[in-house]
Write a sequence for this structure.
């Protein structure tokens, strides 16, 4: 079936980087946009950006511009989100979410990856 | 950025109740609005897109309405599996933004 499986929890120190993966199965990976969204404890969901898995084009939220990089490996049907210069406020659950027919509609979500930033 | 405001932030209801959640956008977004359900420790689940279109596989007890700035999500007869947090999200313009959520609890 169609699913997104994300990598496991991470603990990072302030200033470090984290790279989260999202492996897709059950559909043509290159046919859809993949978004990344995060949810800090007690906070609302926050959109970070997307990648067109077909051509590799990306779009990022201005809030994360310069700190986030979204990439994909088509041979592995996997998307990646790397966040650099981590600070405690980046402690959150990070989700990948595949778009639907509209590139901005978040149809199918991964299970989430907990990233904890702590000294 | 477009601000999305949900009300109430939480509500208590009984099984069988009809529940309505409101979402207001800080500017007109046409019908570019989605609703999600999230249970504790789980990923969000897509319920409704384009303000009123039911996602495939979602039961018809869920319905959405609205256009412009004011939107509603209605659950016609609340069941035990519907106790969760519900979020609205606009996809009219970047950055995509979400409401603060409405937690539906058992009375």
């Amino acid at each position: 079936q169609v699913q997104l499986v994300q990598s496991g929890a991470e603990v990072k120190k302030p200033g470090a980087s984290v790279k989260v993966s999202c492996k897709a199965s059950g559909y043509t990976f290159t046919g859809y946009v993949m978004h990344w969204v995060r949810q800090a404890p007690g906070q609302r969901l926050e959109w970070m950006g997307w990648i067109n898995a077909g051509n590799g084009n990306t779009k990022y939220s201005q809030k994360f511009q310069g700190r986030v990089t979204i990439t994909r490996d088509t041979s592995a049907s996997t998307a990646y989100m790397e966040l650099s210069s981590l600070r405690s406020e980046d402690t959150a659950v990070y989700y990948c979410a595949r778009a639907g027919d509209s590139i901005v509609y978040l149809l199918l979500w991964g299970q989430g990856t907990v990233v904890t930033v702590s000294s | 950025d477009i601000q999305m405001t949900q009300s109430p932030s939480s509500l208590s209801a009984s099984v069988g109740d009809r529940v309505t959640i409101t979402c207001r956008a800080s500017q007109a977004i046409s019908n570019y609005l989605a609703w999600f359900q999230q249970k504790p420790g789980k990923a969000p689940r897509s319920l409704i897109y384009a303000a009123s279109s039911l996602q495939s596989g979602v039961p018809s007890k869920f319905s959405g309405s609205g256009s412009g700035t004011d939107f509603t999500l209605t659950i016609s007869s609340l069941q035990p599996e519907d106790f969760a947090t519900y979020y609205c999200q606009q996809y009219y313009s970047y950055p995509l933004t979400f409401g603060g959520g409405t937690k539906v609890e058992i009375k």
